[in-house]
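pinned: reference chain
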Amino acid sequence: KMVRRHPHVFGDEDARDARAVASRWEEIKRAEGKASAPAAVSEHLPALMRADKVGARAAKVGFDWPDVRGPLAKVREELAEVEAALARGDDHGRVHDEIGDLLFAVVNVARHLAVRPELALHDATARFARRFAHVVEAVERRGHRPEDTSADELDRLWEAAKRDERGA
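pinned: its structure tokens
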């Protein structure tokens, strides 16, 4: 299989660049009846990683926006649909679906910008945890508990944590 799918290495075909290699790889897989259909992406991957791969496979066959403006518009559209579902009082299942669509749209923005969504979310979660730990520490230094602190004060401490982290 390795020899068959790499004629530019093991055969007499030339490949101008990585795109040509990838294109030829897809042609060979299609001829073998194993095209890279989005549905063939493993369901056992983490959700963000799977969404990224499904979007990338759809893009390989031309089902994609020409630039990041398309997925950015889709994020705005999907966010509006979440807001509309909430305003209508839709059931949890409908809101669940709309949130899923919003997340998938965000993953497409990330893919267009060559950002790995799984890693970006991991890093964002770590930043949130660090900053929130700073907020809790500041509240407890004053002899209080976070749950007994006003939302305005928690927000002020959150902004201070962000400033401190950026300045560090």
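why pinned: The chain has a mean pLDDT of 89. The CA atoms of residues 56 and 73 lie 18 Å apart.
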